[in-house]
Each structure stands twice: as structure tokens, then as C-alpha cells.
């Protein structure tokens, strides 16, 4: 179910403004890749280009290519809606649909697409996805309650269950723990470690310890100054990145001597 | 409750208060006024205002209440300033002014409801609601508004049928798709349309149908077109506001699941905003249901019920009220009763809208 991603000379523009410049990287299948770097360095923007979510913002466009499973996502015949079915996304703030119950939230990817699903298949999908997100035991008795009745950490796991219910190949996570307490964060990190067995995961995080804990490979983005584009400085195995990075900027950032 | 300190200049004026305790930096002044003080000051203001007016003029209820209100505002501020200090005095004054402003705003509303209710009650009855004006002449007190209720509902429903889809789709375009000059132009035109006087809308519909159908044509549909011209901008504006309130995160969540944009709009954006949309549409209906001028020249008046909006005159409540009031005599009573009927219809529609909103509202964590 997982695929490797090859990014080649990617430039991201907002209108005329070059936000991310010349990123080339390979994201291995069935691994966790962490993107770290200071605020505004373009790591979230870059993440969004991996499932064409940046196109939601008017004027955003991309040069270069992102190849998933031999298919360039930016080829002219590719439908962005199909891309997002293959490459799911979890956002910074938990955003369950307020009009839907817990079960309906999990089924949102099916229901919102007007797809028909039998009752038993639906129940199976709900249970499987919630188990996959480590949430089943906590909510199995109240599946028809509103998704917003859960705590923040549970809501975020509900959003992960919703993302994996459409059976994507890649799951993108944009600072998934930044709005959560340490215990919920731990639950999500454990979950990421399990999801790695089935999915390719790319996670943006501001928490260096988190990057060190959950990821196999780490990419460091930096920005030369306000108004300058963000760049990929270095990418390596997480252990190497945190022990002996080859770039001075990476070492400064990781050890807290940034700037 | 209070802890008077040496700083409290008026500590001696509160014999009911406990003995001074250790001063705390958190309660540096002379403590708070007891709860009954505002009421006592209010009663004293009323008595004093009455006596004062007795001396200088003859006291009536409005003049006594108005001068008592002014007296109260001054008195409570001074008392509070002396006992509680500057900040609390300002707070009391602001509270007093805001409360009075609210009361003043309520006066016309209550007065209007009271006037319509009491004058309309003279003829208002089940019979009044269920009979029409066929065969009612001169000073006869029989007859009713059944035909006008039918007409008002038919014409307003037709107007809503025209303007709700247009308004809804325009609002969706403006919020979800519109960019640049086109959207700005539409927003500007909607703002201009909001200001169109109702008689202009009536004349527009009249001119339009005269060109197409000939000068003798009168119908409920013609009136509905006039009302739709007035209603559409209100629908656009309110739906637009509601759609903008839907968090972008929900749209992104749907996109990230591979849901196409149009399905996201239908199943997430509209679904989340439906409670507000229903309320907005009901406000737009309430805005046009009492319109008289455009209906007077397009729909006219009739003495019997007609459900046919496409052909012929119809009776409507506002025009019926206007017509009866002009005739004088018992017609004036009918006009008031018709006005009462109209207010009741608007009220029922609003209640229905609230119930619909409650059913569809997003369920919060409290449920």
C-alpha cells in the first residue's frame, strides 16, 4: 500500500513570490520522514505540494516534479482529487466534521464522495480504521456521538482514522501534535510507529525530540532571510542528522544555536 | 462582603457593614454597595421625580419615568463614587446607560405589538381567519382574510422559490469561486440592489410584464417577481456571511480526503452552515412578506381566494389592510386584524425556522 516519492527540482510559488526553491529528495516507502526547520522556511508549503493541497490557495503553483509510483503528480492529465485519495493528510489542528458523528467522520471519505457502501462493510471500515488509529477501545461505545465530543488528542486520532479509511499510500502530517498535550502526543507518536508498517509517512514538526523519536530520515529546511525562499539544506538518516550532520546550519539548529 | 479601609471616605455611611478588617491590597477602597442600594436609589429617584414635577408641572407617567431615569443615573454614580471609588462608579454609570438604551429600544417594539394586538383583537377570530370578503358590503362586520392569507402565502412562496436558488448560488459563487473584478462587481451590485425602494421593484415588474404580457395583465407571479428583486440581495448577503463562517479547515479536511470541490461545498460547507442559511432566508422572507407598494400595482386586490399565481388578481394581507383602512369604518378594524394576522404569520415562520435550525445545527461537545 505504500509508495516511494521522488521530488525533483521543485519550486513552489505564491503568485510571483518564490516560497520554496529547488528541492530534490527521495522519500522511502514504509518509512517516516520528518521535515524540520524554523517557522516560515517552507516545510509546510512543501508538504502540501506532495498532495497538491497548496492549490487551494489562490495563485500557488509549482515547477518541477513529484513522482509517486512512477507517476508525476504534476503531469497535465493528473486529477488533483485522485492524488489526494492516494496521498492523505492530517492537519495541525484536529478538524473533525462538526455535523457528523464519530463513525460518520471515519466514513467521511466514502460518504462525501457519494460512494455506496454496505452496512457491514461500513462497520468493518469504521472498526478497522479506528483500531488503526488506536482509538477503537475509547470510542466503540459511543460511535454515534458527535466527533467534537472527543478530547483534542482523540479528535486528532479520529482525523488520522478518517485519513487512513480512504486507504491512501502516503499519509502527510502537518505538525499533528502541536495542539496536543504530552500524553496525547505520545499516543500519536506510538501510532505513527505502527502506521509505518503500512504507509509512507511524511511529518512536519517543530519538536526536534519528536523528529528524533519517530522518524527514520530527517530533512532540514532553512531560510536565508525574510522574503527569501526556503531551501532544503540537508537530508540524511535521522541518527546521522542528530549526531553528526554535515552542514553547520543543521548542527546549529538542532543544538539550539540557531541564527 | 465588604472590607472598609481607612481610605474609604464613606465608611461611616454604611452602618450595616461589619467592623473594619485588616486592609488588603486587593480591596483597597471602601468595599461594594449592598445589593439593595440600586433599587433603593431607583425608588427614591421615582418619588423625587414625582414630587419635583408636582411642584413645577403636572406629572404624567412618561415625564416621571424619564426624569427619574436621569436622576437615577446621576445619583447611583455619585453614591458609588463616594463608597466604591472611581472605577466602580464608571462601571455603574455605563451599566445604567446601557440598560436604559435597551429599555428605550424596546419601547417602540412593545408599543407596536401592543397597539396591533389590542386594535386587531376587535375583529380577530377563527371566523376572521377562515372567511373571505365575498358578499361583504357597507357596514357589515362579517368577512375575513382567508383569501388574503392564501394570496400572501402563495406570492411570498413564489418569490422565495425565485430568489432562494439565485441567492444561494450567487453566495456560493462569491465565497467559493469568485475572484477579482467579477466578484467585486457582483458584491457592489448586490449592495446597490439592497437599497432599491420597494416601489421601484414593483414598477420594474409592472413594466417587464406589460412589455411581455400586455397592459391588462395582473398576477401573483408578477408580484412575486417584484418581491424577488427585493429579496434576492438579502438572501445573498446573509448566506454569504454564513458560508464565510464555515472554517477553512473543514474544506481542507474534505479536499485531503479526495472529495471534489462541488461535493465539498454541498456536503460540508452547506451542511455545516444550513442552520444559519435557514435563518437568513427566513429574515429575507420576513423582509418582503409585509411589502405593500409593489403588490398594490402588480397583484391588486380580490374578494375571494385564488391559488392561481399565474393569472389574475390576488388578495394579499398588506394590500388588504391598506384597502380596508382606506374604506374607513369597520374596514379600519379589519385592517388592524389583518396586520395582526401578518405579524402572527411572520412569528410562526420564525419559530419554524428556529426549529429547523436546531435540528441541523452542528452538535457540540455538550450533547
TrEMBL record, chain A:
Question: What GO molecular function terms would the record report?
Answer: ATP binding; ATP hydrolysis activity; phosphate transmembrane transporter activity
Give one Pfam hit by family name: ABC_tran
Tell me the ranges covered by the ABC transporter domain, including all copies. 5-248
Keywords assigned by UniProt? ATP-binding, Nucleotide-binding, Translocase, Transport
UniProt-listed Gene3D superfamilies: P-loop containing nucleotide triphosphate hydrolases (3.40.50.300)
Give the matching InterPro entries.
AAA+_ATPase, ABC_transporter-like_ATP-bd, ABC_transporter-like_CS, P-loop_NTPase, PstB-like
PROSITE patterns documented for this protein: ABC_TRANSPORTER_1, ABC_TRANSPORTER_2
Please provide the Gene Ontology terms (biological process) for this protein: phosphate ion transmembrane transport
Which GO CC annotations does the UniProt entry carry? Answer: membrane
According to UniProt, the name of this protein is Phosphate ABC transporter ATP-binding protein, PhoT family
Question: Can you name the source organism?
Answer: Flavimobilis marinus
Automatic annotation (TrEMBL), chain B:
Biological-process GO terms, alphabetical? phosphate ion transmembrane transport
Q: Which UniProt keywords apply?
A: Cell membrane, Membrane, Phosphate transport, Transmembrane, Transmembrane helix, Transport
- Residues that span the membrane, as ranges: 36-57, 63-83, 95-116, 145-174, 186-213, 219-236, 268-289, 335-353
PROSITE patterns named among the record's database cross-references: ABC_TM1 (PS50928)
Domain ABC transmembrane type-1: start-end pairs:
149-353
Name the protein family.
Belongs to the binding-protein-dependent transport system permease family. CysTW subfamily.
Q: Name one Pfam family in it.
A: BPD_transp_1
Role of this protein:
Part of the binding-protein-dependent transport system for phosphate; probably responsible for the translocation of the substrate across the membrane.
| Membrane topology term | Multi-pass membrane protein
User: Mind telling me which GO cellular component terms the entry cites?
Assistant: plasma membrane
Q: Where in the cell is it found?
A: Cell membrane
Q: Which GO terms describe its molecular function?
A: phosphate transmembrane transporter activity
Q: Which residues form a coiled coil?
A: none
Give the protein name, as stated in the record: Phosphate transport system permease protein PstA
Q: List the residue ranges of the region (Disordered).
A: 1-29
PANTHER family from the xrefs? Answer: PHOSPHATE TRANSPORT SYSTEM PERMEASE PROTEIN PSTA (PTHR42922:SF1)
Composition bias, Pro residues? 17-26
List, alphabetically, the NCBIfam families matched.
3a0107s02c
Amino acid at each position: 500500500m505504500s509508495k516511494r516519492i521522488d521530488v525533483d527540482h521543485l519550486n513552489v510559488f505564491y503568485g510571483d513570490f518564490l516560497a520554496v526553491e529547488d528541492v530534490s529528495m527521495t522519500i522511502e516507502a514504509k518509512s517516516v520522514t520528518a521535515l524540520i526547520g524554523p517557522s516560515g522556511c517552507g516545510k509546510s508549503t512543501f508538504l502540501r505540494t506532495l498532495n497538491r493541497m497548496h492549490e487551494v490557495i489562490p495563485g500557488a503553483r509549482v515547477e518541477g516534479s513529484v513522482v509517486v509510483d512512477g507517476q508525476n503528480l504534476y503531469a497535465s492529465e493528473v486529477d488533483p482529487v485522485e492524488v489526494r485519495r492516494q496521498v492523505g493528510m492530517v492537519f495541525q489542528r484536529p478538524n473533525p466534521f462538526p455535523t457528523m458523528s464519530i463513525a460518520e467522520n471515519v466514513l467521511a471519505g466514502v460518504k462525501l464522495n457519494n460512494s455506496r457502501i454496505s452496512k457491514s462493510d461500513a462497520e468493518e471500515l469504521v472498526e478497522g480504521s479506528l483500531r488503526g488509529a488506536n482509538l477503537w477501545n475509547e470510542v466503540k461505545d459511543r460511535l454515534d456521538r458527535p466527533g467534537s465530543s472527543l478530547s483534542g488528542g482523540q479528535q486528532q486520532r479520529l482525523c488520522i482514522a478518517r485519513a487512513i479509511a480512504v486507504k491512501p499510500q502516503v499519509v502527510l502530517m502537518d505538525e499533528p501534535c502541536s495542539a496536543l498535550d504530552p500524553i496525547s502526543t505520545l499516543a500519536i507518536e506510538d501510532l505513527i510507529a505502527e502506521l509505518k508498517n503500512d504507509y509512507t509517512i511524511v511529518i512536519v514538526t517543530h519538536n526536534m525530540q519528536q523528529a528524533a523519536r519517530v522518524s527514520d530520515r530527517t530533512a532540514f529546511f532553512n531560510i536565508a532571510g525574510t522574503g527569501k525562499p526556503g531551501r532544503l539544506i540537508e537530508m540524511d538518516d535521522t541518527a546521522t542528522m542528530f549526531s553528526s550532520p554535515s552542514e553547520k546550519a543543521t548542527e546549529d539548529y538542532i543544538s539550539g544555536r540557531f541564527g | 462582603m465588604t472590607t472598609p479601609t481607612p481610605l474609604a471616605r464613606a465608611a461611616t455611611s454604611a452602618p450595616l457593614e461589619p467592623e473594619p478588617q485588616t486592609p488588603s491590597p486587593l480591596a483597597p477602597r471602601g468595599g461594594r454597595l449592598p445589593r439593595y442600594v440600586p433599587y433603593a436609589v431607583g425608588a427614591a429617584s421615582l418619588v423625587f421625580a414625582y414630587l419635583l414635577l408636582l411642584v413645577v408641572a403636572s406629572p404624567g407617567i412618561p415625564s416621571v419615568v424619564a426624569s427619574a431615569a436621569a436622576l437615577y443615573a446621576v445619583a447611583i454614580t455619585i453614591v458609588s463614587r463616594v463608597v466604591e471609588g472611581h472605577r466602580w462608579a464608571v462601571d455603574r454609570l455605563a451599566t445604567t446607560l446601557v440598560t436604559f438604551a435597551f429599555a428605550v429600544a424596546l419601547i417602540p417594539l412593545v408599543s407596536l405589538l401592543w397597539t396591533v394586538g389590542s386594535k386587531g383583537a376587535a375583529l380577530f377570530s377563527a371566523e376572521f381567519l377562515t372567511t373571505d370578503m365575498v358578499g361583504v358590503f357597507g357596514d357589515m362586520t362579517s368577512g375575513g382574510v382567508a383569501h388574503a392569507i392564501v394570496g400572501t402565502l402563495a406570492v411570498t412562496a413564489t418569490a422565495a422559490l425565485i430568489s432562494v436558488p439565485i441567492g444561494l448560488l450567487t453566495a456560493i459563487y462569491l465565497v467559493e469561486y469568485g475572484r477579482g473584478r467579477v466578484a467585486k462587481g457582483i458584491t457592489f451590485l448586490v449592495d446597490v440592489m439592497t437599497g432599491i425602494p420597494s416601489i421601484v421593484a414593483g414598477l420594474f415588474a409592472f413594466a417587464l410584464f406589460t412589455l411581455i404580457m400586455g397592459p391588462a395583465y395582473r398576477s401573483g407571479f408578477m408580484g412575486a417577481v417584484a418581491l424577488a428583486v427585493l429579496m434576492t440581495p438579502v438572501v445573498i448577503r446573509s448566506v454569504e456571511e454564513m458560508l464565510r463562517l464555515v472554517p477553512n479547515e473543514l474544506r481542507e479536511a474534505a479536499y485531503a480526503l479526495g472529495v471534489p470541490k462541488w461535493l465539498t461545498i454541498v456536503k460540508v460547507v452547506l451542511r455545516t452552515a444550513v442552520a444559519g442559511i435557514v435563518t437568513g432566508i427566513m429574515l429575507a422572507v420576513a423582509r418582503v412578506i409585509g411589502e405593500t407598494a409593489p403588490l398594490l400595482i402588480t397583484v391588486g386586490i380580490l374578494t375571494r381566494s385564488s391559488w392561481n399565481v399565474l393569472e389574475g388578481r390576488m388578495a394579499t394581507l398588506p394590500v388588504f389592510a391598506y384597502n380596508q383602512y382606506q374604506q374607513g369604518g369597520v374596514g379600519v378594524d379589519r385592517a388592524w386584524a389583518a396586520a395582526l394576522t401578518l405579524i402572527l404569520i411572520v412569528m410562526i415562520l420564525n419559530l419554524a425556522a428556529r426549529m429547523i435550525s436546531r435540528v441541523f445545527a452542528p452538535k457540540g461537545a455538550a450533547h
